[in-house]
Amino acid sequence: MSIKLTLANNQVLTIDATTSLKAWKGTHDKDEATGKREYYAESIFADALVQDDAADLLAALQGLLRHSDWFAVGPDFDQIFQSRTVVSLKAE
Prior knowledge:
Elements: E1 2-7, E2 12-16, E3 20-30, E4 37-48, H1 54-66, E5 70-73, E6 80-82, E7 86-91
């Protein structure tokens, strides 16, 4: 069981129950002394979405992408994708 994740540029990523994923949410802090804001990405997930069937994996991936701004697929995590560029998820 796997999920085909299609991005806006037609790139397709394959995610299964053992695929390592990382996800981040953009956030910022304000330095009260200077008034300057510091922007960074806060890690919200770093694991595999271990699920028993494709429907559960699909729902888990939907939830993760909904609550993250950026994500990367292991094992190398050499490319980071904006979550809002996901066009579709298809269970296979």
